[in-house]
Amino acid sequence: MNLTLRVWRQKNAGDPGRMVEYPATGIIPDMSFLEMLDVVNEGLIAKGEEPIAFDSDCREGICGTCSLVINGIAHGGQRGTTCCQLHMRFFKDGDVITIEPWRAKGFPVLRDLVTDRGAFDRIVQSGGFISVNTGGTPDANALPVSKVDSDRAMDAAACIGCGACVAACKNASAMLFVAAKVSHLAQLPQGKVERTQRVTNMVKQMDVEGFGNCTVTGSCEAVCPKEISLDFIAQMNREYGRAILKGTK
Amino acid sequence: MNITNVFASSIGKKFLMAITGLALFIFVALHMVGNLQVFLGPESINRYGAFLQGNLELIWPARIGLLVLVLLHIWAAVKLSAENRAARPQPYVKHEIVAASYASRTMLMSGLIIAAFIVYHLLHFTVQVPAVNLVGQTKLLPTGSFAALEDAKGRHDIFAMMVLGFQRPLVSVFYIIAMALLFMHLSHGLSAMFQSLGLKSPTYGPLIARFAVIASWLIFLGYVSIPIAILLGYGSKYVEALK
């Protein structure tokens, strides 16, 4: 396959950045999108040019590191797929492919396609955990959890924190991410203890980081590689309403 | 964190948006049912009008309450939208819209146009500014203005006012366009408000979606049936007799 890439190049956070066109020749359809970028980068290095910087880690769709907006869609538009699991057979020979970084105030671009997603870490640090001392493994039946609750908690816990929800949202809102974390822990007996303070702190941090608000357009849910449901945002809103009525610190 | 947080936080403002939106939807539904009495003839609608106008202790608190609701709804919308714009300082070079419906992306615009229509609508039928009927009411009636219209029992003749108002095609067309925007606004807003209030769940989701579609269609059809019926000749004999 021969393709044309239009890639966002930006030297550093201060650089205004621009789109640059590169040919991608001799691409095998079975390559993943990131392998295709590796091939292009090898060509650039051979020519003595600066390779295109992009984030990746596991390359098997479970770590949430890869983060490319491909042809205007976060992760490229194949349902429930991160861009490392998007294969070149998804495209046609001769295609022009636009590649951009996540764009949000909360995710400043560091270089080319790499953004700083530290905002998500700070949101999790503000309450996305359970503060109990870990001891020995408890008896399996010591803490009863219904199948429905454990399944729903697992559905929320599937979030890999990639930030595609923010990238796709017209408001650059991080509600789906925060909702997944809040709902996951609020569903289970261990997490219920701190549910009120947790939602208070996490939403506060989300606002501080400069993410937008939810307009319920559903774009986040549609691009989410783990198909986290919009229903979790309703659950977070419910938790938040409860926290307002109870009153928290 | 306490209840004042509804003015400060992201989700709090969405609560404000949803609660004021719900209250305004209830008003819009009741107002439609009231208006539809025009199809029961002059006696019904004029009696209804006289009942509302005759209870100043009820109508003024209601008017002030509605004004406060509208102002809070608009304030939250403008504030939230400004934050949303600020959250993405640099736009995408190429952006594909995924899943987001047209109505959901244009809530601020449809809302602001509806707000402009409400101002016009109040000037037209509540304040009854003669010039607002586009051709002037003096040309339509010997009595001169909507305010001077009286029926046989000495009540304000709402029936004649509605018929004379909507007989002007431009007035009716503007009204129908505004109702189409209201339909769009409600088709998204009626389900989104349940989401914002945290009342949506896998069990209630499908029911809420159906409610939003049915309720917004009923509101649209109920309201536009009045100007359409009048343009097709409903009530024309009644107003001819007045001239």
N- to C-terminal separation of chain B?
64 Å
Can you tell me the CATH architecture of the largest domain in chain A?
Orthogonal Bundle
What percent strand of chain A? 5-15%
Give the helix tally of chain B. 9
Question: In the CATH hierarchy, what is the class of chain B?
Answer: Mainly Alpha
Main sheet makeup of chain A: 5 strands, mixed
CATH class of the largest domain in chain A: Mainly Alpha
Overall SS class of chain A: alpha+beta
Major sheet of chain B, described briefly?
Answer: none
> CATH homologous superfamily of the largest domain in chain A, by name?
Alpha-helical ferredoxin
Sheet-strand content of chain B, in percent, reads: under 5%
Order of helices and strands of chain A: EEHEEEEEHHHHHHHH
How many strands of chain B?
0
Shape of chain B: elongated
Proportion in helices of chain B: 55-70%
Discrete helix count of chain A: 9
Name of the CATH architecture of chain B: Up-down Bundle
Question: Assembly state here?
Answer: heterodimer
Molecular structure report:
Chain A has nine helices and seven strands; from the N terminus they run ββαβββββαααααααα. By secondary structure, chain A is an alpha+beta fold. In chain A, the strands form two sheets. Chain A has a five-stranded mixed β-sheet. Chain A has a two-stranded antiparallel ribbon with strand order 6-7. Chain B has helices at 10-35, 42-54, 56-86, 102-105, 107-126, 158-166, 169-196, 205-231, 236-242. In chain B, helix 1 crosses helix 3, helix 1 (10-35) packs across helix 8 (205-231) and helix 5 (107-126) packs across helix 7. The interface between A and B is large, with 56 and 47 residues.
